[in-house]
Design brief:
By secondary structure, the protein is mainly beta. It has two domains: about 1-60, no CATH class; about 60-165, no CATH class. About 0% of the residues lie in helices and about 45% in strands. It has no helices and 18 strands. The protein has strands at about 1-5, 15, 20, 25-30, 45, 50, 60, 65, 80-85, 90, 95-100, 100-105, 115-120, 125-130, 135, 140-145, 150-155, 155-160. The strands form six sheets. A four-stranded parallel sheet has the order 8-12-15-18, with no helix packed on it. A four-stranded mixed sheet has the order 10-9-13-16, with no helix packed on it. A three-stranded antiparallel sheet has the order 2-1-7, with no helix packed on it.
């Protein structure tokens, strides 16, 4: 599982392995946490100026279906959902990912994300990415350009080089 940073130090995230779930519903980890992680029952700040939630989040990243780069890939991978015109016919790609782990994808120093949606705006096609995890994205985790009818819900984004979505 992954643990997000708290406070103002963005690099204090951690990836840990659970060795046991105890009878009191506590967890035993294979190694101790390296950083302090803040938790509370309500938002960190909620006043007339706005809200700020700096509580730590915990995410489960392992999934049964995994998309991974090959050993010789070096720079990761990209899954592209694309719309294009084929003569007079508009071809629109769509995808529904549910419970998929995308790890070590994308290309460093580019917008090449592990999952990219480009020109998916025509017709009634829908795409969704739900209950999936994006781990160690080499660029953005999901990149969207000129897209619609897309649902992104209940996903874990961990260690994105640029931004998650």
């Amino acid at each position: 599982m992954v643990i997000s940073p708290s406070f103002s130090t963005y690099s204090e995230y951690e990836k840990v392995t659970i060795s046991a779930i105890n009878t009191d519903e506590s967890l035993t980890l294979t190694s101790p946490l390296q950083f302090t992680h803040y938790g509370a029952s309500s938002l960190t700040i909620n006043n007339q100026l706005g809200t700020l939630d700096a509580r730590t989040r915990v995410g489960h990243v392992n999934r049964n279906i995994k998309i991974l780069p090959g050993p010789d890939a070096g720079w990761g991978f990209s899954v592209i959902v694309y719309g294009y015109k084929d003569g007079e016919i508009m071809r629109i790609g769509n995808v529904n990912l549910d419970g998929v782990q995308l790890a070590d994808g994308g290309q460093l120093d580019t917008l090449n994300a592990p999952l990219t949606f480009i020109n998916t705006v025509k017709g009634n096609y829908t795409s969704s990415v739900t209950s999936s995890s994006f781990v160690n994205c080499k660029a953005n985790c999901i990149y969207i350009q000129n897209g619609q009818n897309l649902t992104i819900d209940n996903n874990v984004f961990y260690n994105a080089w640029v931004i998650g979505v």
